[in-house]
Amino acid sequence: MTRAKVIGAGVAGLCVATELVARGCEVTVFDPSPRPGPHACSWWAGGMLAPFCEGESAEEPVIRLGQEAADWWERQGARVDRRGTVVVTLGRDRRELYRFARRTEGHEPLDADGLAALEPELEGRFDRALHFSGEAHLDPRDALRHLRERLEMAGVAFVAEAGDTDGLTFDCRGLAARDALPDLRGVKGEMALLHQPEIRLERPVRLLHPRYPLYVVPRADGRFMIGATQIESDDRRRRVRSVLELLSAAYALHPAFGEAELVEIGADARPAFPDNLPRLVRRGETIYVNGLFRHGFLLAPALARMAVGVALDGSKPEFWHEDNG
Amino acid sequence: MLRLYGTEIASRLMLGTAQYPSPAALAQAFRRSGAGIATVSVRREAGGEKAGAAFWDLVRDLGVAVLPNTAGCHSVREAVTTARMARELFDTPWIKLEVIGHADTLQPDPFGLVEAARILIEDGFEVFPYTTEDVVLADRLLSAGCEVLMPWGAPIGTGLGLTNIYGLRTLRAQFPDVPMVVDAGLGLPSQAAMAMEMGYDAVLLNTAVAKAGDPAAMADGFARAVEAGRLAFESEPMEPRDMAAPSTPVIGRAFLE
C-alpha cells in the first residue's frame, strides 16, 4: 500500500487526501488545527461553483476544470445546490451586464418577469439579468467538515505536528508555503456573513458594479455570505472601508440587508502565482499543490486528481512544474 | 525625447497597474506596449508595513519608471501621508497627486490639490498633479511649483475619451512649454491619438487596457496610436479646407475610370 503525507487540511489538502484514499493509499494529514476553521483561507470562501461566471476574468483552464467541481463534491456526499447563478446590475451600470455577457458563456438573458420567476425577492428591482443555469454552490464550511469526517472514517490520521517529510508528500499549505515557493503572493479578500431570514434567495446573486462588485451566496437558516474584496496584499486585517463597500453593495441589492444581523466579518489572503493560475510543483518526493487563488472549491478537485495522478501514474498534467532547483 | 522632471522617458505611453486579470497579464501588457512609466496605487494595497510587498516587487520588476499615486485620497492630509509612504516604498521623489473632491465623478478637488501640491513640493517631491482642463487651476499648480500637469480626458474609468476638446486645446495653447499628460477617461486608442495630435506630451491610462478582453493587444494598440498621434503632431498637419483638391492631377489622363 502506498503511503502518503498531506500537509495542510484546507480545501486543497482535503481534496488531495480524498483522492489518495480513493486510490487505496494510506494517508496521514498534518494540520495544526483539530478541525476545519478560520486558519485556512478556504474557511472564508464563498463556495460558488461558478466556472462560467469566473470566466469573465479567469483563463480558460479555470472554466474547463471548474466544470468538474460540482459533480466531484456531490460524489463525496457534500450538499451541492445546483440552481445556477443570477447576475444583475443597477440601472445606470447596464453596460456592465452587456460586457459580462460578452465575456462569458453558459448564460441566458432574463427580463424582469424571468428574474421574478427565479428570484421573487428581486422582483421589480432589476429589469434584466443573466442566468447561468449550469452553475452550483455549496457551504464551504460544511463541505470541509464533511470531507474531514469522511477521511477520518476511512482511517486517515490527522496529526497536529508535521513530522519528517520523507516519502511521498503533498504540500498543500497555501500561502504558508511561501518559504518554498517564492512566486506565491497573497491576495486579500474580505467577506461578511449576514443573517436576514426575511430575504430568501435560491442561488448566488452577483451584482456587477464598476467600483464595488459583490456576490451574495445564500446559506442555510437565513444566512448569507457576501463578498469579496480582492486586494493585492497579504494583510489579514478587516478594513472598515472594505466592509462599508460590501455592506453598501448588499444594501443596494436588497434594502432588507440593511436590517440584517452582522454575524461575522472575515479576511484572509488567497495564495496566488503571478498568472493567477494554480501549479503542481514536484521537488524530490514532495508535490506542491498551490496557487488556487479565488478558485479553491472550484479547482481543488481537478488539481487533486492531477496531483495524485502525477504521483501514482507518472502523468504530467496541466500546471505541472518539475523543479530540480 | 519626453523629459519629466529631468528624467528622459522613452515612451509617451504610461500605464496604470490596477485591475488586470493577473500580474502576469499586467507584465505582458507592459512588455508588448513598451510603456515608459507604471503608475501604482499605494493606498489600497498598503495596509501595513510589508503587506503589499509581493505586488510592489512585481511592479518594480516591470523595469520601467514607477510613478506612485495617491488614488482614492479625499483630503489633503490623506494625500500627503500617502505620498510620503510612497516615497519610502519606491524610493522616488515622484508622486502622481490625486485629491478627489467628488465621490461619484472622482473629479479632482482643485483647492485641495493646490494645497497638497504646495506641501509636497516644499517637502522635496516632484509632483504630477491629476487635474482638470481648467487653465486657472493649471496656473496655480505651476505657481505652486509643479513642472508637469496631468489633465483629465474624462472622469476616471469612464472610457469617454476627450470630453472637452476646446478646454484641452486652450490648456495646451496657454502653456506650450509645460509637459502635459492626458490622464484618465480614455477608452480607445483613437482618443489617445487625438490627444497626441493636439500636442499633449503623453497619455496615461489603466482601465481601457486592464479591462479589455486582451489587455496586451489593447496596450499595443494604444502604443501605436500614441506614436501615430505624436508623429502627426510633429509633422505639421495640413489645415482642413472646404475646397476639394485632387491629390493627383486628372487633366490629361488617358483614361478616366
Write a concise keyword list for the protein shown above:
A: alpha/beta, 9 helices, 26% strand, B: 257 residues, alpha/beta, 3-stranded parallel β-sheet, 10 helices, 12 strands
Describe this structure in words.
The complex is a heterodimer of chains A (325) and B (257). In chain A, 29% of the residues lie in helices and 26% in strands. Chain A has 325 residues and is an alpha/beta fold. The mean pLDDT of chain A is 92. Chain B is an alpha/beta fold and 257 residues long. In chain B, the strands form 4 sheets. A 5-stranded parallel sheet of chain B has the order 5-4-3-12-11. Chain B has a 3-stranded parallel sheet with strand order 6-9-10. A two-stranded antiparallel sheet of chain B has the order 1-2. Chain B is globular. The chains are: A alpha/beta (325), B alpha/beta (257). Chain A binds chain B through residues 57-59, 103, 184-186, 188, 210, 231-235, 237, 239, 272, 274-277, and chain B through 21-25, 27, 44-48, 51-52, 54-55, 58, 157, 213.
Annotate the secondary structure layout.
The complex is a heterodimer of chains A (325) and B (257).
Chain A lengths: L2 E5 L3 H12 L3 E5 L17 E2 L1 H4 L5 H7 L2 H7 L9 E5 L4 H10 L4 E4 H7 L9 E5 L3 E2 L2 H14 L3 E3 L9 E3 L13 E11 L9 E4 L5 E6 L3 E5 L12 H14 L7 E12 L6 E5 L2 E5 L5 H18 L6 E3 L3
Parallel strand pairs in A: 1-2, 1-9, 2-8, 4-11, 9-16, 15-17
Antiparallel strand pairs in A: 3-7, 4-6, 5-6, 10-13, 10-14, 11-12, 12-13, 15-16
Helix pairs in contact in A: 1-7, 1-9, 4-9
Chain B lengths: L1 E3 L2 E3 L3 E4 L6 H11 L3 E5 L1 H4 L6 H8 L4 E5 L6 H15 L3 E4 L2 E3 L4 E2 L1 H13 L3 E6 L3 H10 L5 E2 L13 H10 L6 E3 L5 H9 L4 E4 L1 H4 L4 H20 L23
Helix pairs in contact in B: 1-10, 4-5, 5-6, 8-10
How many beta-strand elements of chain B?
12
Listing every helix as H and every strand as E from the N terminus to the C terminus, the arrangement of chain B reads EEEHEHHEHEEEHEHEHEHEHH
The dominant shape of chain A is elongated
Number of alpha- plus pi-helical segments of chain B: 10
